[in-house]
Amino acid sequence: MDMITIPAVNFTPILPEIFLSVLAMVLLLINVFIPGDRKAYLGYLSFVGIVAAGVLVAAGWGGHIESFSGSVVLDNFATFFKMIFLVSAGLAVLISDQYMEREGCNHGELYPLILFTVVGMMLMASGTDLMTIFLGLEVMSVALYVLAGFNRKNPKSNEAGLKYFLLGCFSTGFLLYGMALTYGATGTTRIAKIAAVVGQMSLPSANIMLVAGMLLMLTGFAFKIAAAPFHMWTPDVYEGAPTPMTAFMSAGPKAAGFAAALRIFLVALPTLQVEWSQVLWVLAVLTMTVGNITALRQDNIKRMLAYSSIAHAGYALVGFTAGNGTGTAGILFYMLSYAFMNIGAFAIIILVGKKGESNGNVQDFAGFGVKHPVLAVAMSIFLFSLAGMPPTAGFIGKFYLFSGAIQQGYIWLAIIGVLNSAASVYYYLRVMVFMYMKDPTEEFDWMQVTAPMALCVAISVIGSLIPGIIPSLILQFAQQAIKLI
Amino acid sequence: MLIALVMSGFVAALAAPALYHFFPRFAGRLCPLLPLALCACLLALVGQISAETPLLFSLPWIPSLGISFSLYLDGLGLLFALLVTGIGFLVFLYTPAYMGNDVRLGKLSGWLFAFMAAMLGTTLAGNLITLFVFWELTGLCSYLLIGFDHEQEESRRAALQALLVTGIGGLALLAGFILLGNISGTMELAELLGRGDAVRSHPLYLPALLLVLAGAFTKSAQFPFHFWLPAAMAAPTPVSAYLHSATMVKLGVFLLARMTPVLGGTDAWLYLVVVTGGITMLTGGVLALLRNDLKQILAWSTVSALGTLMLLLGIGSPVATTAAMVFLLVHALYKSSLFLAAGAVDHGAGTRDITRLGSLVKSMPWVAAGAGLAALSMAGLPPLAGFIAKELLYEAKLQAPLAPFLITTVGVVSNALAVAAGILAVWLPFFGRGGDPDLRPHRVEIGLWLPPLVPGLLGLGIGLFPAPVGQWLVAPAVAATRGEPALVNLALWHGFNPVLQLSLVTLGAGFALAALRGPLLRKLPEPGNRPVWGPEHLYGMLLSGLQGFSARLTLTLQSGRLRYYLMIVVGVTVVLVGFTFLTGSGELPSSLPRPDGGIHEWLTAIVILAAAVMATVTRSRLAAVAAIGTVGYGVALIYILFGAPDLAMTQFCIETLSIILFVLVLHRLPQFTLLSNRATRVRDLLVSLSIGGLMTLMVLMAVSRPLSSHISTWFLEQSLPAGHGRNVVNVILVDFRALDTLGEITVLAVAALGVYSLLKKRHKEES
To answer: Cα–Cα 20 to 30 A to A342, which of A120, A352, B510, B579?
Structure first.
């Protein structure tokens, strides 16, 4: 009798994933033995772990290793995105402790859950099989549902968790259905093989099963990246979720959605680009416009950033619609800088906020510039970057995305994007007006800035400023990352 | 060298507040040295720079898009840079005296330095994107400087308005630049300037032109975007003198001059720029006469002057370009002098209302001298520089390719208005007999009277000796603008020609206007507090309208109702996919397999359908759960009928478990109540039917295709020889996928342990 040989599995591509999973489980175990007021140690440990994982990920730069019979790959594209996830998770961990302590929900499970989310996202970025991507997406989503509802005593947080879960399940269903149809049309779930099969079709757009599958996958991803009109859950969930998790959700998982969608659509379905870019064009316009217009009137800054994060996904969709090298590299660059500027801004919100999520309105920032000049300058940098003003990273990112669209002939899309940027300047600068040009309505209390918080703000400032001044620092990596796809 | 010119200002911006903090006495004397030094450097370059030999500096910035941080100094940039540093020197001299002991002096100086550096960056930019970045920085500095007196609501409003108008224009400019870069294939100015013909014949020329013009017109306060400039007078006077008369507002003019070789010379350019400039010129002139505030009069006359400059660049002939460059220089000199004088008046007399001011010459003679010279230049009297500029203006307008008579008439009228404005702003306050006798203006220190006097004297000097300025400053700028060598011979006296006659008419009309203004104003109805209809009103309406729209859209879209969200998600998906089905080139499966089931299959189907309908219409929760369970059992029955008993067993188990869970949870909930009306229910029905229909369609599509079944046959073949088992499912679970099963079991065991310990904990707590 022949022995069934177990195929040699190269674990290198998923080394960071394994490392983080083990770390998360160890943290869960440690959590049992740590008293309630010392949960910050878990945060420190996970931050160190995330940095270590970053080293592991960075070590894989430049390599190209396929493993698990071609369902997972280690390439620059995955590595770049993994870095984005680690950055957003690391920053989120840094700002969590102070907030969770204040809101009285400092449960140790938070950190393992964040790590599991990262594992899921990493699988999404490195997955080269529809099933791997789906697995990653579910690992990420399930952990996120819990994180959204993490503040158990707060009804809003509960509502956020439940809404996210229900709507998320629904969209996941669409995504899975789309994958199934794509499998039905091509007979494989491997992205490379799908590309080969579709490439041999004489007229892929006539294959209705394939087109339907593509559209359903698009719907599923549109939900994950909160593209209008599938964005409806975003404001409610972002508002209800604990602020550090809102910051995290708007940066990391969104990038993961883009990572998976980019790989599927650009590698597997390039021959259908005419079809999917038409849909994406509409989605991009809707997403930018709805996000900006609804953000315009928000007085609560957390809600304002939540709405505006929709718009930011819209800008990235502009690059996706273009689907060319510039647009794609723009998405990578933008997602990374967005993680910095957005989480940085959320960190300041947490610092200004008071127990029970109060003190988070624009008016509460009156006189902030006088009382806390350093933090106010940091916040200004974040806001400028979010508004896309030079010389910040946000400007270069948007510039790159819109340039990609124009290169591809989507002039109108770029103009709509620019108009949207203009509208966003209004509400971002409103915060600046309050910070610098109004006197405080009440005396500022002494504000506690913990060391992790300060570290997060410092890192975010660097991350939102330096790529704006020396863009090639990040762009050269982004360009190498998209070469393979 | 160039990079040091630009960046030194930014360094100074960071250093200035600290300097004022630690050495408050010396800081005020040190600060003007930087612009002076820069100005001297630039002056040393005069004569060496020309359109053929510009100074270049380049540093790769975004190499992938061909964008570098480059600087480019030619005659045009040099003229502007000299203005920026020269007037900057005066402003830095003036600011400490004007602000007195204000603690915010350090901050103000810092921002002014940042502004100066940004201005130098814009005028010396050698790359479109570099230009844009500095352009936006000037707008940002302007925002901070207008809102400097931030205790006042008016300042804040004006600052935001200026930023929004110019900022949005700036974004249009960016779009225009990207388009230009795409059309011409380069973002580098040095290369772009030579590709004008390719750009002008490109189909995207017009959009690019419109976008660039939008940027230029907003920045230079052209009609209908002119309203932000007078409102920006809320800034401290040194700021108004520097930004809003002499330099920043001229950036739009600069941009058009820069872009003339690339975009200029077409009919679209001619009509757009000339008409806009003409309207602005007239509007500004008229409105200047209706104001009583000294700064407002000057601001509106600045708007008028900016319109004149635009008009000249629109005409674009050699003489018009020369006129533009001369007028630009002359206007910067006399207007900065007037603004600085207005600030001194404000400082000394405590008001800027011309109806209350008079005979100021006694208390501030040197300011009066400077302002007087400036006003004479503004009125265009010989032997001042303004006279030369005006002669050139008329010459250019008379030769205009587009309605020369009309343009000349408009020019005469607006120049007459400028004469009248000069009389209002200088004659009445300084030399007039009227004024409020209660005002006791005090003398002003040297820091306040020297800066207005210097540009006034310069105007006189240029008027007397115009030739060197024409040869060394104006000619290179004209050459850079027109993209061809230019010969400029400036002279004071051209003989008694039609141009001079026009000048005389202008003067007469100006004096008449100034004399008639008083009686005319009395006849006008009081504007009161009612907002005057105009572009500013429109701006306000747009802003509040957008906010209202935003509020309504948010309410409608984000109702917070899950059902509503689901409906949109489902609806859009159905439309998206359904649309493709209907319009796509693909074909739907035409021949579906005929339903060939026996009676028990039909019965099962009917039971499932009936249960599904019941689940939606029943009023009882338990009944609904039971109905859903029935659907599940029905599906399990189908599995049995088609020969998959193990699957059916699983389905039965899961179905039972979920029903039990459902019941456990649901029995705590209140009774069903009818929340939605009939119309809503019909809508819900339609949504459900549509998604159901879509899913059915897709299932039909899936089954109509042949299944590729190589994997199942492989398992069937290998089950016995490789796994030693006849039950294929078993073999797969414990053999082929043994590791997976092991993992699953472990997870389940751990989960069970967890649940057990939780239950135990609960038990302990209860007992």
So the answer is: A120
